[in-house]
Design a protein that fits this description.
- With 160 residues, the protein is mostly helical.
- The protein has two domains: 75 residues, Arc Repressor Mutant, subunit A, CATH 1.10.10.10; 65 residues, no CATH class.
- Helices cover 48% and strands 8% of the residues.
- The strands form two sheets. The protein has a two-stranded antiparallel ribbon with strand order 1-2. Strands 3-4 form a two-stranded antiparallel sheet.
- A hairpin with a 5-residue loop joins strand 3 and strand 4.
- Helix 1 packs across helix 3, helix 1 crosses helix 4 and helix 2 packs across helix 3.
- The protein is elongated and about 55 Å long.
Amino acid sequence: MARRKDRPGPLEPRSEAILRAIIEEYVATAAPVGSLTLVAKYRLAVSPATVRNVMAELEAAGYIGHPHTSAGRVPTDRGYRLYVESIADSVTLPPVEQLMIRHQFGQVEFASEQWFRLAAATLAGATHVAGLATPAKPIACRVRRVDLVPNGSRTASLVL
């Protein structure tokens, strides 16, 4: 089966570890992430210069970017997608909860205001923190996949 052009491909283990650390740090702090932070906080067994080289490769591949020249890096949509699809630790809800969520979403019309309220409530219930769901840009769209991605020991994101 051919890989779609917009779907990210696999990374080398070191690049994957650095991308994972960038995403986890960015989600935790909402601030651009620098190489020194990654080496110190995530105990990477490489130098900050090596991290910067890998970050340059990740940026060239479209997985991260930086808001301005002197800033650290931030994940892009492509980087988040790779994280969700292949890097993040998977979380499996108990079958009873999965069935309940499927049933609840089956009871509301997709893309209705009720659907977005339910998505936010489901996220909040699963993570025990506030949840937020907003509609996509007003274009024809449909949900192909729903992922619950852990962001830490007590947080997660619902990615549509």
